[in-house]
Design a protein that fits this description.
One of its GO terms (molecular function) is orotidine-5'-phosphate decarboxylase activity. By secondary structure, the protein is α/β, with parallel strands linked by helices. The chain is built from ten helices and eight strands.
């Protein structure tokens, strides 16, 4: 298992590269893994990803791809050449199959997003799904496993359910992490870092509790310490 510090992924959900670089500078060596999503990717974030990779950091490109198979395949090929570690796609079978083909023999790992952590059962019903969140997560996780996807993005609520079913060959990446005492924001299925690790998560994605903190480095270090303590509980 990786060092606790390498299991924390800081989400750079910021409006500009300058803002992201300021946070990266504050975090220094306390963080080794960053996530770049829509907001930053469309504001020059892919160039920043290349820079981070060149300096030895790992990067998670969170674009949640979903399109016709050929488009997904070619997009994944481009991200693989970038040198990213993780890339998200939505967990639709055709999309996942295309992403696995596009990944080829590169080191890029494809993560399937089962159900967004801002969704609950009512949101699924409003979208026309006749599933509860746990049911849909389980169905999509099984499909991802059979297709050969490398890992899943899921809430910590589902991690404990999924781990026995998928084994340890797939990684579980958990967003919606909120340290005790912090606001949940627009997330509906949240857990503390400790809860997520004990549930079976391999990596935790944390954004606002770190990037919006008065002292981002101290906030990151506190989460890493919680990850380490939880990992020791598992031993």
């Amino acid at each position: 298992m990786e060092h606790p510090r390498d299991r924390l992924i800081v989400a750079l959900d910021l409006p500009s590269v300058d803002a992201a670089e300021a946070v990266i500078g504050q975090l220094g060596e306390s963080v080794t893994f960053y996530k770049i999503g829509y907001q930053l990717a469309f504001a020059g974030g892919l160039a920043l990803a290349e820079k981070l990779i060149f300096t030895g950091r790992r990067v998670f490109i969170d674009l949640k791809l979903h399109d016709i198979g050929n488009t997904v395949e070619k997009g994944v090929e481009s991200i693989a050449r970038l040198g990213a570690t993780f890339l998200t796609v939505h967990a639709y079978p055709q999309t996942m199959k295309a992403a696995v083909v596009g990944r080829g023999d590169s080191n890029l790992r494809i993560l399937a997003v089962t159900v967004l952590t801002s969704y609950d059962d009512a949101d699924l019903a409003a979208a026309g799904y006749d599933f509860t969140v746990p049911e849909l997560v389980a169905e999509r996780a099984a499909q991802a496993h059979d297709i050969g996807v490398d890992g899943l993005v899921c809430s910590a609520e589902e991690a404990a359910m999924l781990r026995p079913n998928i084994g340890h060959g797939m990684v579980l990446v958990t967003p919606g992490i909120r340290p005790s005492g912090t606001a949940t924001g627009d997330q509906k299925r949240v857990k503390t870092p400790r809860d997520a690790i004990l549930a079976g998560a391999d990596y935790l994605v944390v954004g606002r509790p770190i990037v919006a903190a008065e002292n981002p480095r101290a906030a990151a270090d506190a989460i890493v310490a919680e990850v380490e303590a939880a990992a020791n509980e598992q031993v």
